[in-house]
Specification:
The chain has 486 residues and is an alpha+beta fold. It contains 9 helices and 24 strands. Helix content is 42%, strand content 29%. The strands form 5 sheets. Strands 2-13-17-15-14-18 form a 6-stranded antiparallel barrel. Strands 1, 19, 20, 21 and 24 form a 5-stranded antiparallel sheet that branches. It is found in: Cell envelope.
């Protein structure tokens, strides 16, 4: 009995609540308090909102090429440094002493050589042979660069990115295809190193190591071109790639291989000429050349006993300690630039509208919404980066003005403007009703009746508004949430 009474009370309360709710709705309708809105004329803006991080525009980690004991730490963490300033030094007293001795021996050998008749002719001949050898190294780099960038990169998509891909899905040699894609990245790094090497060559500074490295680079490029040749020979004509195009790929690859082989032979030829030039000279000339080589060797060792800043910036990490023994390749100091940029990863579903030059509004978690910054998109990676199983694209933005408030590592909230239409006629999208591919709204007339009007829609913004191209006037009172009010 008690349970029955409780059930009846529950049913009564439920009905009462329903009646009250209905009364409120009816009252709202009866009093004409239906929410309406008029068309607003403003800019239609679409944005992409993502999180990002502040990073230095440039950042370098430095370590010694040789082992040794640290004797000086010239810059501590937080110190401002300029290009070429010393950061850390190894104990180099022994090397300096050996260099002084070698320079003295070179001077003595040159004095003895000057006493010989015709010594200038011999030195000129050797100098010319050195110039020819150096030019052959430069020519080899130029030829290799042409072989990669101009003759074989045409078969790749995004060849200079970190994810190059052969623009041809040949069904055979799948392992070869994957190997070529990986090695194209390696070849790009190799060419950068080789370019740095050849731009610093001179008859005074070059060493046997420069020649050896150039030969190694040629060997790697020749091997890469050999794989490219195997690949293009496996290409077959299809609806996208014609036989004429395939023939061009093959001819260009053959030409690239021949050119690289030729410059490799030229280096050998010039080396032999220099060797002959030295062997044809008196013993004293050979002594001078040997003394020069010794001096260059000690100078090279001395230069590698000091870490110099390659950029203008601030020391961000310094682990070197006086008396510490360091090994080759161990990072002991890092430098970052004073200029900062933003880095973010945008999912593929949003990247389509983002382009270089787009403006962005930035807030930093460190300042909440108290400080706003402006930035522009400066770089978009051509290849995707997989993050948490999702394809994303790394995007970099440059600040328009940081006002000295930005620090490396700060978390940023980024809103990139990807579309803007000036003076568009907008209403909230929730006012639109779509039936049978037809869009319409309800408007309230002077008698408080709701009338249906067909409208033509345009663009949508990022705030839930939609553009009205036709069907409404500025005087119309459009019903919001028409389905709930109808």
């Amino acid at each position: 009995m008690i349970q029955l009474i409780k059930n009846k009370k529950y049913i009564f309360l439920t009905i009462l609540v329903a009646l009250i709710a209905t009364g409120i709705i009816i009252g709202t309708r009866a009093n004409g308090l239906i929410e309406t809105i008029s068309i607003s004329t403003e800019d239609l803006v679409r944005t992409v909102k993502v999180a990002g991080k502040v990073i230095p525009k440039q950042s370098v980690d430095l370590g010694f090429e040789i082992s040794g004991t640290i004797s000086n730490v010239d810059k501590d963490v937080g110190a401002t440094v300029s290009w070429g300033e010393s950061l850390v030094r190894l104990n180099s007293e022994i090397t300096r002493a050996e260099l002084i001795r070698a320079e003295a021996e070179l001077t003595s050998a040159q004095v003895e050589l000057s006493k010989l008749e015709g010594s200038g002719v011999y030195e000129t001949k050797i100098e010319n042979s050195k110039r020819s050898l150096i030019q052959s190294l430069v020519d080899a780099y130029i030829t290799a660069e042409d072989a990669i960038y101009n003759k074989t990169d045409q078969i790749f998509l995004n060849p200079r990115s970190n994810r190059p891909e052969i623009d041809y899905a040949f069904n055979t040699f799948i392992d070869l295809r994957d190997s070529i894609n990986r090695n194209r990245v390696t070849i790009g790094i190799l060419l950068e190193k080789w370019r740095t090497l050849v731009t610093s060559l001179s008859t005074v500074s070059y060493t046997e190591k420069d020649i050896t490295l150039s030969r190694e680079y040629i060997s790697e490029i020749s091997s890469f071109l050999s794989d490219i040749s195997k690949a293009v020979n496996a290409f077959e004509e299809d609806n996208v790639t014609t036989q004429t195009t395939i023939d061009k790929y093959r001819n260009d690859t053959i030409m690239a291989q021949d050119n690289v082989s030729t410059v490799s032979q030229n280096i050998t030829t010039e080396e032999n000429k220099l060797r002959d030039a030295i062997s044809d000279t008196p013993i004293q000339v050979a002594k001078v050349e040997a003394a020069k080589a010794t001096v260059l060797s000690y100078r090279s060792q001395l230069s590698r006993s000091q870490l110099l800043s390659p950029i203008n910036g601030i020391v961000s990490k310094q682990t070197a300690k006086i008396g510490q023994v360091t090994s080759p390749g161990t990072n002991v100091v890092s430098v970052i630039s004073k200029d900062y940029i933003l880095e973010t990863f945008i999912p593929e579903v949003l990247i389509g509208g983002v382009k270089i030059g787009d403006s962005a509004k930035i807030t930093l978690d460190a300042y909440s919404n108290r400080e706003n910054f402006e930035a522009r998109v400066s770089h978009i990676d051509p290849a995707e980066t997989i993050r948490d199983g999702v394809s994303t694209y790394k995007v970099k933005l440059v600040f328009i003005d940081t006002r000295d408030l930005v620090r490396s590592g700060m978390t940023a909230n980024i809103e990139i403007e990807i579309f803007r239409k000036v003076s568009a006629s907008l209403i909230p999208e929730r006012a639109i009703v779509i039936e049978k591919e037809e869009s319409f709204v309800y408007v309230i007339d002077e008698k408080k009746n709701m009338n249906k009007k067909i409208v033509k829609l345009g663009e949508k913004d990022s705030r839930g508004n939609v553009e009205i191209l036709s069907g409404l006037s500025l005087e119309d009172k459009v019903v919001l949430n028409p389905i709930g009010n109808n």
